[in-house]
């Protein structure tokens, strides 16, 4: 029920605020009037309601998620003597992760308080990005909730802080503030080892994918398809596996193991996804996306497609999923308000335009969210249970029960 309430509030926000915003920005009333202070104030208030709601149900959760047991143990036994900024390990805890736990323990020695703190940081940064980068905040929030929030809030706590550093770094990079942008990427790496891939983002910014859009997407598609046919010990992981760094070699060996899934994919499904991604990218570009926006979307596409062959790349994908969500929130509203309306008028179709827009929006959103939602009901061989068992039923510290099914999967 606690999850359903969040979804219903998000949908209310979409109907009440996102659609009117889209009519103003892309639709027939564009430029004719301004929103009242009351409208904007209520919209802002609802965003904060969802923010606080997510922080609270995350921070006060009790043994929700399959990785939470390890984090609880780590928090209880971590000591200041373990903090060494000169040692960066690719196979265990990074210095900033150790530091933030120690600082939290120094103030209040409570894992609940630590969870509230980290949830406020992560959720606050992501909601700030949505509020800053898209007028359609509630659509973005709904996608974030269904696509990322469960893992971000209950499983990948270390990586979620790395993502919280990477998100503002992209804002600085877009403004060509290189020192702040690259500095925050380095901070991401100090939270989680997987963030080493983010150092390529500033370099990729110099490739103008926006100007040569069609050729660029064709090249991207060919590159993605070629990744699917690479042998499992492809050049990147082979380089890591045979590295002189023992921790790095160990990490790559784990990531190539079958524990993270099997390397199987359907070429037909991949082609369908590439077609959908082309539609999103094209409309995103037409809606005013910057070159960096497209680069980040393309990185998500590469990670999404390659994860079909190398499942662990799905962890890297989380860094760019936020920017895919931004692209969806803008491209879908741009399409239904700019182009769908023109199609209806040019063909003189006698239907209610606004109802048609809503219907098409719902259909597109259902298609885009079908796979993320069905994931929770998919059987996971690593868990020997459906994925949803990690997060449901929900228990809080005020009702400290333990799900018997989940308890079998977690070592507390």
Structure description:
The chain has 412 residues and is mainly alpha-helical. Helix content is 67%, strand content 1%. It has helices spanning 2-25, 37-59, 68-77, 95-107, 111-133, 137-154, 157-174, 178-191, 201-204, 213-228, 235-241, 246-255, 267-286, 291-306, 313-346, 353-375, 404-407; strands at residues 379-380, 385-386. Helix 1 packs antiparallel against helix 6 and helix 14 (291-306) packs across helix 15 (313-346).
Question: What are the key terms here?
Answer:
single chain, 412 residues, globular, two-stranded antiparallel ribbon, 1% strand, mainly alpha
Total count of helical runs of at least 4 residues: 17
Overall mean pLDDT = 84
Shape: globular
Largest sheet: 2 strands, antiparallel
Low-confidence stretches: 238-255, 257-263
Fraction of helical residues: 55-70%
Structural class: mainly alpha
- For the terminal residues, how far apart are their CA atoms? 26 Å
Rg computed from alpha carbons, rounded to a whole number of angstroms: 22 Å
Walk me through the topology.
Elements lengths: L1 H24 L11 H23 L8 H10 L17 H13 L3 H23 L3 H18 L2 H18 L3 H14 L9 H4 L8 H16 L6 H7 L4 H10 L11 H20 L4 H16 L6 H34 L6 H23 L3 E2 L4 E2 L17 H4 L5
Antiparallel strand pairs: 1-2
Helix pairs in contact: 1-2, 1-6, 2-5, 5-6, 5-7, 6-15, 7-8, 10-13, 10-14, 11-12, 13-14, 13-15, 14-15, 15-16
């Amino acid at each position: 029920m606690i999850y359903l309430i969040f979804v219903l509030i998000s949908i209310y926000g979409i109907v009440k605020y996102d659609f009117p915003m889209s009519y103003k920005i892309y639709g027939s009333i564009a430029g004719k009037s301004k929103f009242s202070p009351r409208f904007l104030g209520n919209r802002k208030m609802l965003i904060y309601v969802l923010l606080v709601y997510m922080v609270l149900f995350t921070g006060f959760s009790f043994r929700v998620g399959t990785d939470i047991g390890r984090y609880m143990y780590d928090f209880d036994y971590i000591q200041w003597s373990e903090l060494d900024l000169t040692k960066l390990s690719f196979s265990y805890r990074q210095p900033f992760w150790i530091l933030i736990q120690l600082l939290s323990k120094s103030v209040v020695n409570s894992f609940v308080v630590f969870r509230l703190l980290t949830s406020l940081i992560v959720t606050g940064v992501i909601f700030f990005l949505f509020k800053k980068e898209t007028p359609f905040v509630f659509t973005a929030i709904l996608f974030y909730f269904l696509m990322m929030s469960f893992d971000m809030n209950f499983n990948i706590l270390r990586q979620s802080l790395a993502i919280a550093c990477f998100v503002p770094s992209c804002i600085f990079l877009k403004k060509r503030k290189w020192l702040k942008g690259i500095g925050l990427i380095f901070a991401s790496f100090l939270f989680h080892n997987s963030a080493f891939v983010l150092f390529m983002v500033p370099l990729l910014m110099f490739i103008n994918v926006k100007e040569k859009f069609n050729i660029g997407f064709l090249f991207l598609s060919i590159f993605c398809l070629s990744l699917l046919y690479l042998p499992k010990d492809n050049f990147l992981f082979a380089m890591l596996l045979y590295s002189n760094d023992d921790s790095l070699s160990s990490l790559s060996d784990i990531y190539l193991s079958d524990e993270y899934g099997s390397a199987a994919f359907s070429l037909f499904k991949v082609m369908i996804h590439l077609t959908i991604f082309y539609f999103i990218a094209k409309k995103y570009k037409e809606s005013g996306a910057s070159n960096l926006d497209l680069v980040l979307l393309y990185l998500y596409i590469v990670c999404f497609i390659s994860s079909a062959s190398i499942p662990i790349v799905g962890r890297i994908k989380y860094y760019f999923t936020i920017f895919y969500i931004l692209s969806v929130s803008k491209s879908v509203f741009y399409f239904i308000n700019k182009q769908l309306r023109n199609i209806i008028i040019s063909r003189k179709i006698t239907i209610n335009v606004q109802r048609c827009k809503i219907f098409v929006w719902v259909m597109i959103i259902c298609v885009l969210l079908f796979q993320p939602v069905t994931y929770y009901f998919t059987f996971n061989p690593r868990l020997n249970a459906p994925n949803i068992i990690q997060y449901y039923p929900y228990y809080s510290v005020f009702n400290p029960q333990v799900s018997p099914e989940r308890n079998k999967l977690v070592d507390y």
